[in-house]
């Protein structure tokens, strides 16, 4: 991919998620194409008049989060608007966080995973949410303030070039974001740099089960919808190895196919045939 088109893709992604942030989350109105990972089709009304509904017509972000593996307790522990329903799994559960740990969340959106992580690491720990979309960072900061959470901070920046010190994090988590990056090797290299020796990755993301057709990869709506930029499972493993990670585990969730089928614009209804949500774990050698 030429660098000009990479910049164009990044701009389209930023614009899409800026719209979501300004709308207060992805909501489902009369437009069934609106979805978590289809932010270009946001609406401000839900079928039920709820704010921050997501993904399936008539299904709220809270209901979707339950399907993604979040407990009821987690879902009701954050304020309205913090959970924009933009994830594709539950990396917080995967991370097995301990009190005192430092966590970096790549592409933190409205801050939902950061707030859950902050509770787990406690006052002796710290969570840094990173996002390249100014409106998302603004929204997450507002949510943190409303929730009185002092061990979470949100930084504006790109996950390919993290404004975070070397060897400073115990865990890097991410939820449905790395597929959106046009330079995934830089993302994993940066994660490796920022992790302490022995630090771990806990990622939920959309991966391709086969090489995506060129027209899907070049379709900006499909890229922003978390489909067009998905790397294959094999390439993801190679990139993680190249960045220096060991103990790499990639576990696709076949049950996510139905969810993905519902996410996307009509023209991508076959997307579920070639992408899947997966959990990715890896360790920086001690
Ligand atoms: C699908 S949303 C996921 C948000 C959040 N992780 C969640 O689960 O709700 C993707 C987020 O990643 C951000 N993002 C996409 N590409 C990025 C990049 N290259 N660097 C930093 N943030 C990025 C977007 O601005 C958006 O907030």
Largest sheet: 7 strands, mixed
Biggest sheet, spatial arrangement of strands: 3-2-1-4-5-7-6
Strand % is 15-25%
**Would you list the SSEs in sequence order as H and E?**
HHHHEHEHEEHEHHHEHE
Write the CATH homologous superfamily of the domain at 85-283.
Answer: Vaccinia Virus protein VP39
Write down how many β-strands occur, each being a DSSP E stretch of 2 or more residues.
7
What general form does the structure show?
globular
Compute the separation of the termini in Å.
Answer: 35 Å
What's the CATH topology label of the domain at 85-283? Answer: Rossmann fold
Percent range of helical residues: 25-40%
What would you report as the Rg, rounded to the nearest angstrom? Answer: 17 Å
CATH class descriptor of the domain at 85-283: Alpha Beta
> In terms of per-residue confidence, which ranges show pLDDT below 50 for 5 or more consecutive residues?
27-38, 40-55
Give the overall average pLDDT: 86
Q: What is the CATH-assigned architecture of the domain at 85-283?
A: 3-Layer(aba) Sandwich
Bound molecules: S-adenosylmethionine
Tally of contiguous helical segments: 11
Structural class of the secondary elements?
A: alpha/beta
